[in-house]
Amino acid sequence: MTRLVVAGFVAVTLLGCDHDDAREAFDPFAQSARNEAIADTACPKVTAPYFFRIEKDSKTSYLLGTRHIGVAWSKMPPMVHDALDNAKLVVFETVANDGSDETPAPFKPARDELGPKVWKRYRELAGDALADAMQNAAPTTAMIMLMITYEDRLSALEREITLQAKVLDKPMRGLETSAFQHELIDKYTDGRAARRYIEHLDSVDELRQDTIEDLRKFCSGTLEEPGVGPDDRKDMLDSGYTEAEIATMDREMLFDRNHSWIPPLETILADGDAFIVVGADHTRGDQGVPALLTAEGYTVVRVTPPAK
Description:
By secondary structure, this protein is α/β, with parallel strands linked by helices. The chain has one domain. The protein has helices at 3-7, 10-15, 20-25, 32-42, 78-86, 110-126, 128-134, 139-147, 157-167, 178-188, 191-199, 204-220, 230-238, 243-271, 289-295, and strands at 50-56, 59-66, 89-92, 172-174, 274-279, 299-302. Strands 4-3-5-2-1-6 form a six-stranded mixed sheet, sandwiched between helices. A hairpin with a 2-residue loop joins strand 1 (50-56) and strand 2. Residues 11-26 have low confidence and may be disordered.
């Protein structure tokens, strides 16, 4: 599974953890100065946002593709802020406390699920403090906490946009339930995925470099095609995944969801003045939301900041 797709569910996963020791490891202030410096160096500003104007029948709305963690709302260009300020409705993939049934899936503690060899490697990579906090957490949580070692956890676009929408008294709605997202998390970030990720991670410096590269690509608008990238694909195939399994994961994590969002989005877009927020992976490619809306007769244009 790609880092960016996994990061798309970070907030949901962390909120779903019930282990008290694990919560200590979720402290967003831990190493915050170091990680904020990394984020500010790699991405001082978002220069080419995944930002789209959507028009049909004299109604206009906007779509923003986000990186769910590590990029502050203040780094977005003024035109994006203006679109939120002027919106009558703010739409997310899902909204908090939506009332859906979120029954936690049973799991084996990470230390037991991963086994002695992989757990030893996890401890070497994560350090004793995080490993001690994660040993009884779900493998999903242990993997994600390792992935975001160098992420600026105080910066989260959806959270900041939600807070701003509340300040502006904007109504909000989701395109799918949080329970549905939890089901996807449980399915695709299981013990097998965690073992694969840990076994193929060379060093903590690789984590740092991955974070920097991801930030630079997002902020410059140069991310590749959506879904599993070539490096992750190779690692997954080496770990025993099949091409069919990878294709199914891409379909269920991205493309099926994109298609399922079009009917509710058409209802929303008929009224106009909506500000729609989804992960950037959902905005790219011929099965991305902009392409699917274009096929339905909308005029969708990626909007770039004015040249200085």
